[in-house]
Design a protein that fits this description.
Elements (H helix, E strand, L loop, with lengths): L2 H7 L6 H7 L6 E2 L12 H10 L14 H15 L8 E4 L1 H15 L4 E5 L5 H8 L3 E5 L9 H7 L5 E5 L11 H14 L4 E5 L22 E6 L12 E4 L3 H15 L4 H12 L3 H25 L11 E5 L1 H4 L4 H9 L4 E2 L1 E2 L8 E5 L5 H16 L2
Helix pairs in contact: 3-10, 4-10, 5-6, 5-9, 11-14
């Protein structure tokens, strides 16, 4: 078979999340967003971006990223986990997606064989390792979406790579410090030669209870990935980063990412500095207030519809179970509801490995209207 023949018979589909978002009718409301698009970006971010153009924003930066931003990240993360990081511990990437991609690529080249991911997960945790020929297995979550530590203990090998994600997409679950302590104990006992990749992209978006603490406060064989896409309401700038206490590993990742991106966009990295140094803290507080209010309102609607959910306290999603209404697979329901006039977008749980569920995004200023439309959609589905 030729390349063109294969091309004609092989689909390269867009991620399911994109597919449903694209189905949105012009009169529709989106409760499908994975970014704070409706929220105003802090002016310190935009000012820093504009100023960069009179500095060296239009030039290449080092492969590992802008030194000013790397120092800022080393400083901020070191204050939280009490490690002595320098710029050599930090790699700037094109969003967290690129951070995970280059990390997995590097670990595979260093001999990693298997990766463990949560059973309900952000889709790339599976897709990226599969692209590199790694074996992917899932570890179980408890009914409240916390990690089932006993199950993880039973399946883990000493040289595995384990991805954890707190606050989580799509469940909104935040691991508290006692859970992180238990998890780190397990890793110290069982994960002698492997690594944990901790995706902390929603770390600053916790709107209730104990604030999130980086996992590197509990365990040292951890590669932390984070960025400004969510907490900076600036996903389009595509700035993410990796921080590890192992400088040799950092250097290896820089080398492996250089063949993908060469270097990250210089100007955009200046925009990330105020987020990292905490200058946008007041704005973040406002985002979290809106998200909490939206979470409370969404729950009221779900209760009225008798739809089961687990109450989230971080990221900006609520994951609800539509099994009693639409059955085992929600994708058709989601596409139909998105396409309708005055419809609404919610994301089918199949995109995260949980077919009977839907992900409702709280990242909207039209939450109440969106939930009213979802109520209508559920009602008309029930009366079909
Ligand atoms: C858990 C998680 N990790 C990573 C990403 C990707 O982030 P970025 O846009 O910075 O590549 C997302 C985006 O939705 C996410 O939800």
């Amino acid at each position: 078979m030729t390349i063109d023949e294969r091309l004609a018979s092989t689909g390269f589909p867009l991620p399911a999340i994109r597919e449903v978002n694209l189905a949105l009718h012009p009169t529709g409301i989106s409760l499908g967003l994975g970014e704070l698009r409706d929220f105003e970006t802090d002016s310190k971010i935009t000012e820093s971006l504009i100023k960069s153009l009179n500095k060296n924003g239009m030039n290449y930066c080092p492969n590992a990223g802008l030194p000013e931003l790397r120092y800022a990240i080393a400083n901020a993360h070191g204050k939280e986990d009490e490690n002595n990081y320098t710029d050599e511990n930090v790699i700037i990437t094109v969003g967290v997606q690129n951070a995970i991609y280059s990390t997995v690529k590097t670990l595979k080249k260093l001999g990693a064989k298997r990766i463990l991911i949560p059973e309900i997960n952000f889709g790339i945790y599976k897709k990226i390792p599969l692209e590199f020929g790694l074996k992917v297995e899932t570890y179980r979550l408890n009914p409240d979406y916390g990690i089932d530590i006993d199950h993880l203990k039973n399946i883990i090998n000493e040289d595995d790579i384990v991805i954890i994600n707190s606050p989580a997409n799509p469940t909104g679950r935040v691991l508290d410090s006692s859970e992180q302590t238990m998890l780190s104990k397990l890793f110290r006992e069982k994960l002698k030669n492997g690594y944990v990749i901790s995706d902390e992209i929603y770390g600053k978006l916790v709107y209730e209870g104990e604030p999130f603490v980086p996992f590197s406060c509990f365990y040292d064989r951890v590669i932390t990935v984070s960025g400004i896409s969510k907490s900076g309401a600036s996903a389009g700038l595509r700035v993410g980063w990796i921080i590890t206490n192992n400088k040799f590993l950092a250097k290896a990742i820089v080398s492996n990412n250089a063949t993908i991106i060469s270097a990250p966009p210089t100007a955009n990295q200046y925009a990330a500095i105020p987020v990292v140094t905490g200058e946008t803290a007041e704005t973040l507080k406002r985002y979290n207030e809106i998200l909490k209010n939206n979470r409370n309102n969404a729950i009221e609607f779900l209760k009225k519809m008798q739809i089961p959910y687990v109450k989230p306290r971080g990221s900006f999603y609520i994951f609800a179970d539509l099994k009693s209404i639409v059955g085992e697979e929600t994708k058709r329901f989601c596409i139909d509801t998105a396409k309708k006039e005055n419809g609404v977008v919610v994301i089918p749980g199949g995109a995260f490995g949980a077919n009977s569920k839907i992900r409702i995004s709280l990242a909207t200023l039209k939450l109440i209207d969106g939930m009213k439309r979802l109520t209508e959609a559920v009602k008309s589905y029930t009366h079909k």
